[in-house]
């Protein structure tokens, strides 16, 4: 009985420690061939992205897990977007993971 209570308690604690919740959101990102100057916590370089081809470029301050950006190439990516539960005040509330590189074109 003690073992069952312990295992149940441990399982409850581990489930409660989950920090990322999936939004089941797959997105297409268009990534420009050059980085732009931007300011986050300090001056840095940001990717320029669009979520549709007709939109203007927007600065992307975060990272895409599994994606290795190379200047001089435009990319079309499929990414998964996840909500980060209770992020620190200076951290993003969304996290992105690369699903696939749909296209990579030298510019």
From TrEMBL:
Signal peptide location: 1-22
Pfam families: DUF4377
Top-level taxon: Bacteria
Keywords from the UniProt entry: Signal
Domain DUF4377, residue spans: 30-104
Keyword NAD appears in the UniProt entry: no
Glycoprotein as UniProt keyword: no
Protein name per the record: DUF4377 domain-containing protein
Organism taxonomic ancestry: Bacteria, Pseudomonadati, Pseudomonadota, Gammaproteobacteria, Enterobacterales
């Amino acid at each position: 009985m003690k073992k069952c209570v312990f295992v149940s308690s441990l399982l409850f604690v581990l489930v409660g420690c989950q920090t990322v919740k999936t939004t089941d959101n797959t997105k297409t990102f268009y990534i420009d061939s050059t980085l732009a100057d931007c300011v986050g916590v300090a001056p840095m370089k940001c990717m320029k992205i669009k979520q549709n081809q007709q939109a203007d470029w927007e600065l992307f301050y975060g990272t895409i897990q599994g994606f290795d950006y190379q200047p001089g190439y435009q990319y079309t990516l499929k990414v998964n977007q996840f909500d980060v539960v209770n992020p620190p005040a200076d951290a993003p509330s969304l996290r992105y993971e690369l699903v696939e590189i749909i296209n990579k074109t030298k510019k």
